[in-house]
């Protein structure tokens, strides 16, 4: 891989989980700004197609590897983003022990790699560290309400342990670690069958099937478009001094699941009905980020409203469904 552009040494950045939904957009943004990118992914939920546009790029390299196994990298690394971990509840619950090991052992491995390289480190944590929150909106100093023995614990507690590791490496002066607490994010490249609400609703609406609302649909989430999130991740990685504390990244607009169903039906023009199904165990009732810290420390806030982001995502789902249909017909 060419690690310099016109004689100037450029940043070399490792993105773990770089073939996933968010990770692939982050790889695109890093390549666009001139970095050399090493994408490490085991393809447990990610897809080669997500990074196919970068396939032959001279500053892009893809390594198939499971981060719960240690790894060595020859190039000198400047930054490591750790996004490796399935994010969709049905997906991370399908292999719960592996999910936990990915967050705990995987983060420890990547922090060790960062220490070896003197690289800055950013951990993709989650609003799930707040569990089913009793504080609303959620601020970073809220310690959360997580059921440590429930079906979501493999994800929530894994991410909490990963945060603890980051702050220990930071306190010990071993790694310049930063932690983003990401709230529900959506956009192109979500997999239609990954079980997350926006991808599921769009897929169902475009297919004219009923939208599956869990519970009474009055639970809320706050949805951030992926380009806004990527901008927040880049700013958090580079801001000086290190905030030394987690930073919420999300869109404070709060919507019920019923409202989202209506927006997706309007946006797709679909005649789909809605069916009500049982609420999954430990499903959080309300979620909305307080982004005061991100505004103060990063000068960041989301700029893409939900209706606009939904239109972009619906367009992408339409185009990719057509392309897949064409491939099947060939
Ligand atoms: P995703 O499932 O699309 O991407 C995760 C990527 O990590 C996939 O490419 C997957 O193959 C890879 N991966 C998983 N386990 C791995 C392992 N052991 N070794 C190597 N690669 C592995 O999910 P996403 O939505 O892109 O989320 C990216 C990150 O952001 C995750 O860490 C997730 O926890 C965090 N996050 C996302 C959201 C969201 O709404 N998208 C919200 C909160 C946090
Ligand atoms: N949800 C739903 N129908 C679906 C998928 C999800 O009603 O087909 C609900 C789910 O119960 C939750 C919300 O939508 O209350 C967000 O779910 P998602 O899995 O996208 O994210 P998370 O629960 O991790 O925030």
From TrEMBL:
InterPro entries in the record: Epimerase_deHydtase, NAD(P)-bd_dom_sf, UXS-like
Q: Which GO terms describe its molecular function?
A: NAD+ binding; UDP-glucuronate decarboxylase activity
- Write down the Pfam families for this protein, in alphabetical order: Epimerase
Matches recorded under Gene3D superfamilies? NAD(P)-binding Rossmann-like Domain
Origin: domain of life: Bacteria
Q: How does it sit in the membrane?
A: Single-pass type II membrane protein
The protein's UniProt keywords, in alphabetical order, are: Decarboxylase, Glycoprotein, Golgi apparatus, Lyase, Membrane, NAD, Signal-anchor, Transmembrane, Transmembrane helix
Q: Cellular location of this protein?
A: Golgi apparatus membrane; Golgi apparatus, Golgi stack membrane
Could you give one GO CC term from the UniProt record? cytoplasm
Q: Which residues form the NAD-dependent epimerase/dehydratase domain?
A: 13-250
Enzyme kind, highest EC tier? lyase
GO terms under biological process:
D-xylose metabolic process
- Cofactor(s) for this protein? NAD(+)
What EC numbers are recorded for this enzyme? 4.1.1.35
Record-given protein name? UDP-glucuronate decarboxylase
Q: Which organism is it from?
A: Chelatococcus caeni
